[in-house]
Amino acid sequence: MESPVSELQDTSILRKTPRVLVFASGKSGVGKSSLVGNLAAALAARGAGVCIIDADTGLSNTGNLLGLRPAFGLEQLADGEKTLAEAIVKTHEGVAILPGAQILLGRPMAPDQRSNLDRIVRELEGQYDYFFIDLPAVLTEKVLQFVEAAKYAFLLVSADPAALTDSFSLLKALNARNYRGSLRVVVNQAADYPTATETYRRFAAVSEKCLKQKVEYGGFVVRDENVPKAVALQMTVIDLAANSPASRCLFSLADNIVKHIGSDREAPGLADYWLRLLTAAPVPPASAATMEIAGAAEPQFDLRGAVRARSVPAGCDSPQRLLADIKSQALDQAVLEQFTGAFVEAYYEQFGTFPQAFKALFYRWLEAENYAAPRLLELAATLDALYAMHHQTPMYNLPEAVARLLAQVQDQPEQHRDAIEQLRAAFRQAYQCDPFDAEQVLLASITSEEFTEQRFEDLLQKLRDAFQARFKRPYQNQYELLLNSTVEALNAMAVDQQNLQEEFAILMHGFQSLCSRREKLLAAIKTVQDKTLPFAPPASMDR
Predict the structure, then answer these.
(1) Angle at 159 between CA 156 and CA 164, to 5 degrees
(2) Mutual orientation of helices 193-211 and 161-176 as an angle, nearest 10°?
(3) Where is the CobQ/CobB/MinD/ParA nucleotide binding domain (predicted)?
(4) Where would I find the H helices in 129-179?
């Protein structure tokens, strides 16, 4: 049976003109990288070839979330140290991931680096149907250029008012640059479909009212407990639970991409996107850093979808003035937050590292931020993956990991059993076999002192029922089979005996008939002789 991709698209054209999809968000924590990895897996399950170019400089690294440990990235390719085959890693679904694309967001490349990347782009061009570009959740000039160069972009939002406000800031910056691509809003972590559509409606209404810009609805992914489980197991949610609510949403998104974007034969390919990205007109650093401060006031979304106007902050001409304005609350919080992001990005581009104070600030942020449980779980799993990537060893050894797992499910037998089943599923996925010998486990259970005769009888009955359900016949041991075969042989012998008796009776009847006919013939001969008829013996007749 043909896949939806082959039904809707010409494969030869797909290979020549892959579709480039950019994924951005205004705020970290909305699950962008997780959605990118899962959506790519859903498209791969539909028969498409997908490559993720991971340019996210934040903690939510796509490859790490899927349990991959890339040793090299785009930086080594640009320097000519490694080949494309050495840098690309693939999931078992066939999704390719090219990590380390943060180099494209940093300092300008040298001519030899650009030449190497030109070659890499040409090599990638015909290998995949779709290229997903996972961008960091920061509002910088480079991020805007990545979105601006793409014909198709996806903006991830959630019902969180802060996420909606930050996404609106990104949209406003794109609108100021006259972005003419197709921007689709995807609502992630939605409670249900009505909540997702209401979130989109609020966002689209504010966009049309304040910016005179319409945004398309790209779909939604429902909040699902299987998503954080998949993150913890470093696998895709469609692989963990293909029929879960989130998986069904992801497959729906994949089908819409195939139908509406995959059928666009005039869409620019990866080489065209790369050329547009390189030729994008840069904005002067001062203007880029103060772009949002100098812009129009932004709306603020509250939990009911209402919008409040924001004041335009006073300008600052020095760090001291900026600090004084912060202390006096002269600056609006959201605008200041975006200025801080632009400032840190400029600091990183200038000095190649983050400020030393970031460590203490990071700890304070973790303590002060009121994180929901799924976001904390995703953050912890991502930190674990980053540690493993940098040090080539897990953060926790096996005994520590087992102890943590046991402590988490203590006095909760159902969760304990669920954890065991998930570990077994991960083992089967990795090694294509079950980690336990069912026969040995059963024997060990039977020989334990807690196993009673009644449990043994119940187990036997369940095994007999399972045998009949599997092989469509009652279970019989070798003695029962031998007895049945003996009975069948005796029955066959009885039938043969009956047949022989019938044949013997027929023979006896024929013998009796023959004897009767002989007697009658002798009687007739004797009667003829008694009537003195000449009947000479053969010898006298010869004479």
Answers:
(1) 60
(2) 40
(3) 22-236
(4) 141-148, 161-176
